[in-house]
Write a structure and sequence with these properties.
By secondary structure, the protein is mainly beta. The protein has one helix and 15 strands. It has a single domain, classed as Beta Barrel (Porin), CATH 2.40.160.40. Helices cover 8% and strands 49% of the residues. The longest helix has 19 residues. It starts with a helix and ends with a strand. The N terminus is likely disordered.
């Protein structure tokens, strides 16, 4: 099983350049709107017939893979799955259950009012094997808004989410990114706000637009954070590398 898991992950990573080679030369070389930052969603969506492949490398040799599709004019559907301890020499590789993502952009925004989207994302982080739950919960049901502010390329993103329908706590998130000449973007976000029992986290990162269709993210999650989660597991800053590839069918 360990060998099969490794092979599947390598095939997923190898699919990035293979798909890139199939991009039509007739497509206009424009950077597509960001549908997410590091952990924070935006109001951006994939175009109709759009497709995004995402691979994130996280602490402990884990790999998170995701697929997202523009199935309708304003509707995106996707799924993701994480594999713990896939990279490196540690034993005990674990494939976690797949999680679904749905996003519907219901307003394109105006001069004063931001674009808005509603969605669901079940993908969490730091899976706790004992209670079969993520220590950092997924967004769950969320409402996200995005608006360019002040100067061209500077965008503000924010919204509210309910990650757990057992207690119905309302959380908030806020993000800011600045894109320079469609070549590089700087991201700063605050996630999981409003509840001290599940402390907020500050994330920062850089997004490199290698091509109009391929981006490389270098990020730091939970800046300055230490201590433990509610179950006693250690909580600390984490470095991630993320690759995203966008194209159309």
């Amino acid at each position: 099983m360990k060998i099969i898991n490794s092979v599947l992950a390598l095939l997923l990573l190898a699919a990035v350049p293979a798909l890139a080679a199939k991009v039509s030369d007739k497509r206009e070389a424009l950077v597509l709107p960001d549908v997410e930052m590091i952990d924070v969603p935006t109001a951006g969506i994939l175009d109709y017939y759009g497709f995004m492949l995402k691979t994130r490398f996280y602490s402990g040799g884990g790999v998170l893979g995701g697929l997202n599709f523009g199935v309708q004019e304003r509707l995106n559907l996707g799924a993701s799955m994480s594999v713990d301890k896939l990279i490196g020499s540690e034993t005990g590789i674990k494939m976690r259950r797949p999680e679904i993502q749905v996003k519907f952009r219901f307003f394109d925004g105006g001069y004063y009012i931001p674009a808005a989207a509603i969605g669901y994302d079940g993908q969490g982080y730091y899976y706790n094997q004992s209670d079969k739950k993520y220590l950092e919960k997924g967004k769950g049901l969320y409402l996200a808004g995005s608006k360019e502010i002040g100067v061209p390329g500077l965008a503000l993103h924010g919204g509210f989410n309910v990650p757990d329908f057992d207690n119905n706590y309302l959380f908030g998130f806020l993000g800011l990114n600045y894109t320079l000449e469609d070549k590089i973007a700087f991201m700063l976000e605050c996630d999981s706000m409003f509840h001290s029992a599940d402390p907020s986290r500050l994330n920062a990162g850089t997004r490199l637009y290698i091509t109009p269709y391929f981006q490389l993210d270098l990020g730091l999650r939970e800046l300055g954070r230490n201590g433990t989660f509610e179950g006693g597991q250690k909580r600390k800053s984490e470095r991630i590398v993320q690759m995203r590839y966008n194209t159309n069918f």
